Request: fold
Amino acid sequence: MTAIITVASTGPVATKADNPRLPTSPEEIATAVEQAYNAGAAVAHLHLRDERQRPTADLKIARTVMEMIADRCPILIQMSTGVGLDVAFEDREKLVDLRPRMATLNPCSMSFGAGEFRNPPAGVRRLAAKMRDLGVKAELEIYDSGHLDECLRLRDEGLLPEPLQFSIVLGVRGGMAATADNLVSTVRRLPEGSVWQVIAIGRSNLELTAIGLAMGGNARAGLEDTLYLRKGQLADNLQLVERTVTLARDIDREPVGVDGATRLLGL
Reply:
């Protein structure tokens, strides 16, 4: 049995003050992605930062990062349209105009830590239709049980081609808690034939990644999800990807390459 490993190198929240190894410049992000690809990752989930380390949807920066990665390795690009809580939805949705192979579609607005993550229903439908028309595969990030129901409505409206690709996000304040019960109950409700991975934020990252792999899901690794390899030891992206690859192989889930991931994801 195989598994798709995704690297999420940067994210929208942490800065180098939290972990000096966090890549924020285009060069640093491209290097981290190349290293992850060589270690076994087939997908790169991208967040972008400006020169002040702030989350950005700047198309010039996005294009630069995508081109630098493509020059180094053939990893599949999954562009985050989540970007950051302070970036307008109208700016975030423009990122799919660059036609990455995949992009995030967040179906619902929600509290996110001390902030608000805005995904207005009309905007979500507009973005889903654009992604469908451009051939950009939607990575459906669901933070709570009702988010899955909204994804199924979008599918039924003809906005999401199957097979659906889900990321089950656990541990964000405002969403589902990082528990095995929440993971199991969500997976049970996924449509038949769906592709899914668990994204466990913070201290439960390793435990829930292992449970997700054991259940037949895929896995994501990187500094977006946890800054630590273990308690008190800051990580880098390569260490987190290598740990996840080893974990998958230890339970006979061989990480697939780009061609295998392309087939499994229905790209």
